[in-house]
Amino acid sequence: MAHKQQQHQPKAGIALQHSVTEALTCHRICEETITHCLYTGGAHADPDHIRIMMDCADICRTASDYMVRGSRFIPAIAALCADICEATAAECDRFTGDAQMVACAQACRRCAQSCRQL
């Protein structure tokens, strides 16, 4: 029965579920990338770089929580999440040739795009 309910959800509900998934994925990848950067060292471990990735991981987790509970503040938190994700993606783009950084930037962009669609 749960499967039938998902098929008949309004488009807004589907977009919200997609945003939750993208936010949680971005949170996870940012956390993994922070560890990668700390082990790599050098510019990867720059405090400002680590800080923005921590900000991104936290806002993605927070935004997904707001979305799951149907908070009336979803538009505001989603907009902030998108802004931080876009800034983090740009920061990760600085590290060319690093597959983990590329994956992080891609996840951040997907999350930003899904948040902007809410």
Description:
The structure is a single chain. The protein has 118 residues and is an all-alpha fold. The chain has a single domain, classed as Substrate Binding Domain Of Dnak, Chain:A, Domain 2 (Up-down Bundle). It is built from 5 helices and no strands. Helix 2 runs antiparallel to helix 5 and helix 4 runs antiparallel to helix 5. The radius of gyration is 15 Å and the shape is elongated. The N terminus is likely disordered.
Task: For the structure shown, list the relevant keywords.
118 residues, mainly alpha, elongated, Substrate Binding Domain Of Dnak, Chain:A, Domain 2
Please specify the SSE layout and strand pairing.
Layout: H1 2-7, H2 11-40, H3 47-69, H4 74-93, H5 99-116
Q: How many strand segments?
A: 0
| Largest β sheet strand count, sense and barrel closure | none
Q: If you consult CATH, what is the topology?
A: Substrate Binding Domain Of Dnak, Chain:A, Domain 2
Mean pLDDT, to the nearest integer, reads: 92
Roughly what fraction of the amino acids lie in strands?
A: under 5%
User: Structural class, from helix and strand content?
Assistant: mainly alpha
CATH architecture verdict:
Up-down Bundle
Rg (C-alpha, Å): 15 Å
Number of domain units: 1
Total of helices: 5
Gross morphology: elongated
Query: In sequence order, what are the helices and strands, one letter per element?
Result: HHHHH
The parts where pLDDT drops under 50 for at least 5 residues are 1-9
Task: State the name of the first-level CATH class.
Answer: Mainly Alpha
Distance between the termini: 27 Å
Query: What is the helical fraction, as a range of percent?
Result: over 70%
